[in-house]
Amino acid sequence: MLTTRTGIRTLTPADLPEFLDLVAEDPVVNVFVDYRARTTNLDRRWLGGEIWGRFVGGRMIAACHAGANLVPVQAGTDDVAAFAERALTARRTVSTIVGPSEPVDALWSLVAGEWGHPREVRRRQPHLELAGPPAVAPDPLVRRTERSDLEAVYPACVAMYTEEVGVSPEQGGGADLYRTRISQLIARGWQFARFEEGRVVFKAEVACSSPYAAQIQGVYVAPDRRGEGLASRGMAAVAEIVRAEIAPVVSLYVNEYNHPARRAYDRAGFVETARFSTVMF
User: Fold this and answer.
1) Are 234 and 201 part of one and the same domain?
2) Is residue 276 classed exposed, middle or buried when 0-12, 13-18 and 19+ CB atoms within 10 A define those classes?
3) CA angle at 71 for the pair 34 and 103, rounded to the nearest 5°
4) Residue 246 sits in the same domain as residue 148
């Protein structure tokens, strides 16, 4: 059903081609929603939420992923206002608002009064891309993880998540669910690590991918091994494998204040193409 005042309706599988055309206007920045659309066919049963489209003159001009993550897509000022209105009238399922800084900051300003205090707001996060060979020699010891690596890699995954997010993924009885998530990444060939004497000293994962790009998450170096160049060489290795076998461009976004990580990505050859913001509840 179309909301006439805002021109918004929930997308269905029939809208997939037009939605993918919209996403392709900035395909690397929009890789998360591209991945979600392709893997679910915009079917709400698999999305675990909805994707809203905003239409003007019968043409989709913007969209917004609305599930655990609220993610604006190609949204200008009027689009953001319309999506905020929709978000405030829908049942809230959102734990994170994330995406390009301008629409995310505007969206948050419009819903903040109703949604209360977030756990953290991270603005101006550099969005980085690598579309060619890395600038440093890849670490030859970085490889895809295998099922037999789960017990060794799982503690590093928990440590990375806890350090990055501020809470353990095992909190509230979430250990089994998080272990299943790591197992799925390994099964897909989406996790990479360097092991030394059975211990993970570097790791990274593919979070999502499309025909255009793959987004990296969960980059981690063991605390006692930081400052040795493991991250830059490790990311060079990950980028080479990903670009050869998964997607032509490798992307990620990083906290503005994380200067060691930013230096490592810069050395590996990543370049900034946008800024993201993240609001976490």
Assistant:
1) yes
2) buried
3) 120
4) yes
What are the pLDDT digits (tens) for 151-170? 999 999 999 999 998 889 99
pLDDT at 38: 98
Residue 65 lies in a domain: yes
Closest C-alpha to 274, from 80, 31, 52, 43: 31
User: Taking 60 as the threshold, does the pLDDT of residue 3 lie above it?
Assistant: no
What is the domain-level CATH number for residue 267? 3.40.630.30
Question: What is the C-alpha to C-alpha distance for residues 146 and 186, in angstroms, rounded to an integer?
Answer: 6
Q: How many domains does one find in the chain?
A: 2
User: Can you give the pLDDT at residue 4?
Assistant: 46
Unique residue bearing structure tokens 């230096």: 263
Claim: this prediction has a pTM higher than 0.90:
yes
Residue with tokens 């891309």: 129
Percentage of the chain exceeding pLDDT 90: 91
Identity of the amino acid at 121: V
Taking Cα atoms as reference points, which of 123, 135, 98 lies closest to residue 271? Answer: 135
CA angle 72–78–84, rounded 5-degree value? 55
